[in-house]
Structures are given as structure tokens and as C-alpha cells.
Amino acid sequence: MSKQYDVIVIGGGPAGTAMASGLKAQGKSALIVESDLWGGTCPNRGCDPKKILLSAVEAKQAATNYQGHGLAGVPAIDWPALMTTKRGYTDGINDGTLGGLKSQQIDTLHGQAYFRADGELTVDGDVVTGTDVVIATGQRPNILPIDGHEYFKTSTDFLDLDAMPKRVTFVGGGYVGFELATIARAAGAEVHLIHHNDRPLKNFDPELVKALMANLTAQGITFDLNVDLKQITKTADGLHLTDDHDFALTTDLVICSAGRLPNDDQLGLENVGVAYGRHGIKVNDHLQTANAHIYAIGDVSDTPVPKLTPLAGYEARYLTGELVKSGAPISYPVTPTQVYASPKLAEVGVTTAQAATEPDKYRVTSLDMTKWFTYYRLQTRQALAKVVVESQTGLIVGASCLSEIADEMINYLTLLIQKQISLAEMQKLVVAYPTPASDLQYLY
Ligand SMILES: Cc1cc2nc3c(=O)[nH]c(=O)nc-3n(C[C@H](O)[C@H](O)[C@H](O)COP(=O)(O)OP(=O)(O)OC[C@H]3O[C@@H](n4cnc5c(N)ncnc54)[C@H](O)[C@@H]3O)c2cc1C
Ligand SMILES: NC(=O)c1ccc[n+]([C@@H]2O[C@H](COP(=O)([O-])OP(=O)(O)OC[C@H]3O[C@@H](n4cnc5c(N)ncnc54)[C@H](O)[C@@H]3O)[C@@H](O)[C@H]2O)c1
Fold first, then answer.
1. 113, 35 contact by CB (below 8 A)
2. Which residue of 53, 57, 176 sits with most ligand 2 atoms within 8 Å of its CB, as the best mutation to test the pocket?
3. Quick one: which of 41, 142, 165, 371 could link to 46 by a disulfide (CB 3.0–4.6 Å)?
4. Which atom in ligand 1 lies closest to the alpha carbon of residue 112?
């Protein structure tokens, strides 16, 4: 008879591995199942490889900003060498993650998990048994079902390209489209980004998105807005893209960056009474599905938060406690989110759009920081911020930043918001000068 586990975790990405480790540390027996690469999206084909490629883009951008200001000559990106650097990291992730799980004495199984018609959980057809099951199967790229969709490639393909094609087109103006377009352009490609309406990155402050697009346009990226792509055909000259009107473009590589779909439709969830849909597996505020013994965390769960690696880990930590001893409903901390373009666009907390609906409660300060010492020193083209302050308390409750160092600033701002640090408290601190942290007092 097969071993009976306390918990079976499906999916070996950031959510699943954090869950299995947490359970093990609490003395529970756990089996973790992965059908593809151990480590999941983030380290194999998401955040980490992207940020390695972006490091070369940042170095090139820094040198570009200093032309005529003390540096002569802009370095070129050597794509094959950069890809070797990326693979130097990603090639070790699968074995490293598996080794880490084994060293914690967590049982692992490679195969496809599926709930069969009698409700038994199977892995490649073999039954496995556990008291509880945690589903952490993530998401996959959404491929638009247009004519010629078979020519679409995905972010996964882009992050492992042997050579950068001459012409690259992205369809969908979200995180993936903006980030990978920035990398492709810096690596020398002619880049188009097609978006179906006039509001790419629609959850971010529209003025800062406009400023980001102006910066990227100046770098040579072409935005094709209000284009509803209908067809891709292969011609002698490349891939021909058309809509139902007069849009036409020929490109060498077309990446579908029009969102991601939850991996909830191939698990046999209907056989165990678990409800799911376009936004993922339905869970209550204890991350429990309609089946009391089955939970869902990370990208695959339908929760009111963005789908990000730190939140996958946060949900795993919450559920580890919940499965070990019943606790309070999950509540999420303020969570920063950012687009790693050039410059970077980052937001946290109350948005400027939310603040505008309650003018008595919030005031919004717009700052052009381009000439501040921090940005002058870097010779950055533009540095903007919008800060949302709660009128009654004077506390910062939200912020949007657009700059080359927005990713660093937003984490400081997250700390100020989450810990409710007032200007008076801030001024009791001494931080190293001159650094981005020494600018914080001027943001209130
Ligand atoms: C290009 C890109 C860039 C990103 N950049 C960032 C970033 O900068 N910052 C950030 O915070 N987030 C980023 N993300 C999002 C981040 O990668 C995800 O939020 C994170 O990986 C979610 O973790 P997860 O464990 O829920 O899912 P995943 O990491 O997707 O892991 C799920 C695992 O489950 C496995 N699986 C699926 N079905 C089955 C099955 N039936 N049986 C067994 N195993 C199964 C999959 O193979 C996969 O390994 C990015 C994503 C992409 C695509
Ligand atoms: N920096 C980060 O933290 C980061 C980076 C990459 C991905 N991610 C995660 O992965 C998720 C997926 O990213 P994504 O960029 O693929 O999705 P997204 O949902 O952020 O963006 C998809 C975009 O495609 C557009 N779109 C949809 N249909 C279209 C069509 N027919 N034609 C043109 N445009 C169309 C949408 O309006 C949207 O703007 C993100 O929501 C995020 O959770 C995070």
C-alpha cells in the first residue's frame, strides 16, 4: 500500500516548494509533485532570468545616460554571451531545487497530478494519498486564438533565445510585453508593441505610463495602440501581422504577451467538487476550495492580489500555519508591483486613481525628481513620483515612481507605508548620504 501523507502539494514552484518546506519544518509529512521543471516559473522562465537579461540593459542604459557627461562609447549587448550568463543560473535550478527538497527529507514525485473520476489523486496514473491537498500549479501564457496563432511564441521562448532576431513584435501591453520589449530593443532589435486599446498597463497611473511610453519610444520602440490583431501569416519576408482594418506589419518573431491562464483546467477538479474559472481556483479567505480538504495558493488561486512570487511565498507561509493549527483569515500586507522597463515603473498602496475618488481623505503630490542630486548623478532622462498622503494623519499610504531606481525606492516606500512611519519618525533616523534612502524625507 502506498504511503499516506499529511499533505500532498501539487506544483514545485515558489508557492509549492515554500509550502512543502514549511509543512516539513512543522513536523508534517509532505509529498510534492512537479510535472515539469522543479523551481517553477520564477527562477526557470520568469523573474530571475528576465532580471539577469535586464542587468545588461541597465548597464547599457547607464553608459548611454553618461554620453557627453564623462563617458564615451555605448557598449553593445552580446546576446549569445548574455544568454550563456543567464543559462549559467537557470541550468542549475531544477537539480538545485530538487536537491534542496530531498535534503529536507521531503518526498518528491515527478509527473502529472490529476484527480480521477472516483476522486483519487493520481500522479501519471498512480494513486497517491494525503489527508489534505494543496494545489500550487501556477499559470501558463495565454495564446490569443487568432488565425495563425501557431506562429506565436511566448515569454518562455524569448527568455531562451539563442539569437536576437532583427524584428521582434509583442502582442499585449502588460508587464511581460513592456519588460521583454525593453530587453529586445536594447539588444538591437526593431521592436513593436501591439495593444488592443489605448491603455497599456491599465492598473498603473496613466500619466506615468504615458511618460514611460515616451521614454521607450525615444529608445526606438514603436507602440501600435488600438490594434486588434486578427491574423498572422508566414511569408517569404517573415511573419505578416494584420487586423481587420489597415494595420500591417512584418516581423521575424511574435511574442504573445496578452496575459496568463491558470493551470486549473487539466487537474480533474470537477471530479472533487473544486470550483475554478478564468481567474483561477476559487478559494475562501482561508485559501480553502469548495472541497474542505483541498486548498489553492500562488498564481493558480483566485485571490484579490497580483500574481507575484513574494505573494506565492506569503500564501504558503499563511497556509502552513493554517494547516498546522486553525487560524485567522488571510490578510495581505501592502504589496509593491513594478514593471522592469527602462525606466522602471513601480506602485504600492493606495493608487492615485483611488485617491482621486476620495479628495477629502487623500492628497496626491506630484514630484519631478529629475534634477534631484540622486538622479542628476545618474544623468537619468526622467524621474517622476506621485505620493498619496492621508490628509488626517500625514502618513504616506501610496506611491507611484518612474525612474531607473524605482525598484529600490518602492521597497523603502513599502516599509514606510506598512510600518506607518511618519515624517517625524523618519527624521529621527539617520541614513547614509547621498543614497536613495536619504531622499525619502522629501517625499512626504
Ligand atoms: C516572464 C515572467 C516574468 C515574471 N517576473 C516577475 C517578477 O519580476 N516579480 C514577481 O514577483 N513575479 C514575476 N513573475 C510571476 C512569478 O513568476 C509567479 O508569480 C510565480 O512563479 C508564481 O509561483 P507559483 O508557485 O504559484 O507558480 P509557478 O512558479 O508557475 O509553479 C507552478 C508549478 O506547477 C507545475 N504544475 C502545473 N500543473 C501541474 C500538474 N498537474 N501536476 C504537477 N505539477 C504541475 C508547473 O510545472 C510549475 O512548475 C513573472 C512571470 C513571468 C511569466
Ligand atoms: N515585474 C513583475 O512583477 C512581473 C513581470 C511579468 C509578469 N508578471 C506576472 O505575470 C502576469 C502576466 O503578465 P502579462 O504581461 O502576460 O499579463 P498582463 O495581464 O499584465 O498584461 C496582458 C496585457 O495584454 C493585453 N491584451 C489582452 N488581450 C489582448 C489582445 N487581444 N491584443 C492586445 N493586447 C491584449 C491586456 O489588456 C493587458 O494589458 C502579471 O499579471 C503578473 O502577475 C509580473
1. yes
2. 176
3. 41
4. 42
Complex prediction ipTM: 0.98
CATH fold of 343-442: Enolase-like; domain 1 (3.30.390)
Q: What is the per-residue pLDDT for 325?
A: 78
CA of 299 to the centre of ligand 2 (A): 13
What residues are paired with 224 via a beta bridge? 194
Cα 2 to middle of ligand 1, angstroms: 29
Q: For ligand 2, which residues put their CB under 6 angstroms from it?
A: 144, 171-177, 179, 194-196, 200, 229, 257-260, 306-308, 337-340
Tell me how far the alpha carbon of residue 401 lies from the centroid of ligand 2, in angstroms: 20
- In CATH, the architecture of 149-258 is 3-Layer(bba) Sandwich (3.50)
Ligand 1: distance of its center to the CA of 394 in Å? 38
Residue nearest to atom 16 of ligand 2 (CA): 259
Smallest CA separation from ligand 1 atom 38, residue = 137
Please, which residues have CB within 8 angstroms of residue 302's CB and are 6 or more apart in sequence? 262, 276, 277, 279, 280, 281, 282, 283, 296
- Domain boundaries defined on the chain: 4-140+261-324, 149-258, 343-442
pLDDT in tens, 199-243: 999 999 999 999 999 999 999 999 999 999 999 999 999 999 999
Share of the chain above pLDDT 70, in %: 100
In this structure, are residues 374 and 436 in contact, taking their beta carbons and an 8 Å threshold? yes
How far apart are the C-alpha atoms of 431 and 226, rounded to whole Å?
46
Fold observed for domain 4-140+261-324: FAD/NAD(P)-binding domain (3.50.50)
Q: Which three cell numbers stand for residue 439?
A: 531622499
Same fold, 4-140+261-324 and 343-442: no
State if residue 136 touches ligand 1 by the CB under 6 angstroms criterion. yes
1 has pLDDT over 60: no
Give the pLDDT confidence of 327-350 residue by residue, as tens digits. 899 999 999 999 999 999 999 999
* pLDDT tens-digit readout, 37-69: 999 999 999 999 999 999 999 999 999 999 999
- Residue 63 Cα distances to 69, 85, 240, angstroms: 10, 20, 35
Global confidence as pTM: 0.97
